[in-house]
Each structure stands twice: as C-alpha cells, then as structure tokens.
C-alpha cells in the first residue's frame, strides 16, 4: 500500500538504517518517507504519529516541537530494557510522520488530527498507535477520531496528570485545559470511564473537583498513590476500567512529573511524580491487553534543561513498548 494519509507529512528527517546486530532506537524504528513509498502495513505492530500542535495551549508552549525533539534523541537509546531483559527489536515499529497543522486555524488543525486517527484505524487497525504531542487538546481529537472509527466501542481513559483538564469549554474552548471535559460533554466517553492518577498540590480549583465528582470521574491524588503504591494504584485503575470498557486509551501529560525531573513542561510544578513512578505506571499500562493507544503530551523542549524532559519522554515511550511486548510473551 502507498502512503495513505493526505493529512500527514513525512518526518522532517530520516536516520540512517545501516546497522549491525545491535541498533540504536533511531536505526530500529522505520520511517515512512513519502507518498510513493510502498508499505506492508500488515506487518506493522506499532505506529508512531507526531501531532505538533500547541497553539491551543492555555500557557505559552512550544510543545509543537516535541515530536522532532524526541526523534532526535532516539540515537541516544538502545531498544533493549536491561531490567526486564527485553529486546524491543522484536516489534515492527513505523514512524508515520506528523499531522499537518494550519498556521492559524486551531479548529481545522483539530479536524486533521481526528482524520488522522480515523485513517490509522482504517488502514491498520491491528497496529497500536503512539502519538507524540503537542499539547493536551490533541487527546480529545484523537479519541473522537477513534470513536468515529469504532462507534460501537466504549472507551476508557487512564490519565497520568497533575491537572483534571476539566475546565469549561465556554471559557477556554478546545484547549489543553479542556480535553477530558470536551470528551464527556460531547458524549464520546462517560465520566466514570476516566481514571486520573497523579493530581497534587495547588494546581486545580475546587470547582473542577466538584465537576469531577458530579460526572463521576475517578481520580487518585499523588498522596493517595504513595500510600497505596504506584503499582497497586495503576493495576486497580486498569482492572476497574477493563471491567466496563472495550478499549483503554493512555494519555501521559508530562507535567505529572515533579519540576526537578521535568523542567521542560509549560506547567512544571513541585511535588509531582518521580520518573521511576511514571515509568512503572506506563509499563503496567503497556502490558495490559485493553490499552490500545497512548499519547505523550505537554513536553516543551524549548523550556527543557539538558534535555531532561525529552529524555524522560523517550523513556516513557520505550517503557510503554516494553510493557506492550510482554503481552505476546504472556499469551505464549
């Protein structure tokens, strides 16, 4: 099949694929280079899609630059997880490129993001999509695209975040502060099918907590997470979601991390997760069979220090894939 996405453009650069028996991540992940390239999508296990939109961010953000920044750092990682003794090269991973964005029209850009998800579900619904944002507004559009492609499915969300993201659409529009409310009020998901893990401190208003309670959103504060343990918390969330929904979408807002670990986010805060806690959470999510998509959002490389946050973002992606590859091992 040829490049089937009119709403996508190829990645801005390609790594050399000449390597020996031990490639770097940059040499392992395949790149979809353009419209004339023939691709056997039936052999693809995982697709990566850049969604470079951050004009819809409430605070100034260059999260649109994150997909390219993460790709640039692939050269620094090996596709082998030492602690789990897991070789990721057994997975066939394809970088599709980026969703095209309109310079000024956020609504049109959001439509193209929805269309891209619909196309992914049409052309290779067996492959698990990983989206590199972009701000958190993209999550609502991606899930709406999934729902359009699979109207019969009940979608649950595992959200790792410092914020509820339940701000009023009337006041804030389809921004990075409103994606979960957007999905609930559009009827795309039910409030009870959301599990938000990682809320902490002084970064959410009382009215947002009251709205979350009103619509039945499940949330676990970081204080509660540390009382129960991150593994137990995530396993409980996944169990409760899987009892109700057909598919679980994992969204990782990098501002869930403490500012010491993630200075490169628009809303960096003290008191957040440690990287080891986040990595454990995404590993468990990756290993769960009903988690069928994930995104990484709100990572601004222009704010970063020594690439701390971008490296953490790449680690999140690879750790999720480490969990994902366990599914086939457990099935065997």
Nutshell version of this structure?
By secondary structure, the protein is an alpha/beta fold. The chain is built from eleven helices and twelve strands. Strands 1, 2, 3, 6, 7, 8, 9, 10, 11 and 12 form a ten-stranded mixed sheet that branches. A two-stranded antiparallel ribbon has the order 4-5.
Shape annotation: globular
Low-pLDDT residue intervals, each spanning 5 or more residues: none
The largest β sheet comes out as: 10 strands, mixed
Query: Which range best describes the helical content: under 10%, 10-25%, 25-40%, 40-55%, 55-70% or over 70%?
Result: 25-40%
Structural class: alpha/beta
Strand content: 15-25%
Mean pLDDT: 92
Number of strands: 12
Number of helices: 11
Radius of gyration: 18 Å
What are the secondary-structure elements, in order, as H or E? EHEEHEEEHEHEHHEHEHHEHEH
The first-to-last residue Cα distance is 31 Å
Secondary structure elements and pairings:
Layout: E1 8-9, H1 25-28, E2 30-31, E3 46-51, H2 66-73, E4 80-81, E5 86-87, E6 93-99, H3 106-123, E7 128-133, H4 137-149, E8 155-160, H5 169-172, H6 179-185, E9 194-199, H7 206-215, E10 218-221, H8 222-228, H9 230-242, E11 247-253, H10 275-287, E12 291-297, H11 308-331
Parallel strand pairs: 2-6, 3-6, 3-7, 7-12, 8-9, 8-11, 9-10, 11-12
Antiparallel strand pairs: 1-6, 4-5
């Amino acid at each position: 099949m040829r490049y089937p996405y009119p709403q996508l453009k190829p990645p801005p650069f390609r790594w050399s694929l000449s390597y020996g028996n031990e490639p770097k991540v940059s040499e392992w992940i395949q790149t979809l280079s353009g419209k004339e390239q023939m691709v056997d999508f039936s052999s693809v296990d995982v697709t990566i899609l850049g969604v470079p939109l951050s004009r819809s961010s409430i605070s100034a953000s260059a999260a649109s630059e994150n997909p390219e920044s993460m790709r640039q750092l692939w050269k620094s990682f090996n596709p082998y997880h030492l602690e789990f003794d897991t070789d990721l090269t057994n997975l066939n991973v394809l970088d599709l490129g980026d969703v095209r964005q309109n310079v000024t029209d956020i609504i049109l850009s959001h439509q193209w993001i929805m269309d891209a998800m619909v196309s992914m579900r049409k052309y290779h619904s067996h492959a698990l999509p990983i989206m590199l944002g972009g701000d958190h507004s993209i999550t609502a559009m991606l899930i709406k695209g999934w729902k359009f492609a699979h109207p019969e499915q009940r979608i649950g969300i595992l959200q790792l975040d410092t914020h509820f993201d339940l701000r009023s659409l009337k006041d804030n529009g389809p921004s990075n502060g409103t994606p979960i409310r957007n999905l609930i009020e559009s009827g795309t998901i039910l409030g009870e099918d959301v599990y938000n893990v990682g809320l902490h401190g002084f970064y959410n208003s009382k009215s947002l907590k009251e709205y979350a309670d009103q619509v039945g959103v499940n949330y676990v504060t970081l204080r509660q997470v540390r009382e129960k343990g991150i593994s137990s918390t995530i396993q409980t969330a996944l169990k409760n979601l899987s009892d109700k929904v057909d598919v679980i979408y994992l969204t990782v807002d990098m501002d869930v991390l403490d500012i010491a670990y993630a200075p490169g986010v628009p809303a960096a805060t003290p008191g957040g997760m440690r990287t080891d806690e986040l990595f454990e959470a995404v590993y468990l999510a990756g290993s769960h069979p009903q988690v069928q998509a994930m995104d990484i959002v709100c990572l601004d490389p222009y704010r970063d220090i020594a690439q701390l946050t971008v490296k953490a973002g790449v680690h999140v992606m690879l750790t999720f894939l480490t969990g994902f590859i366990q599914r086939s091992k457990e099935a065997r």
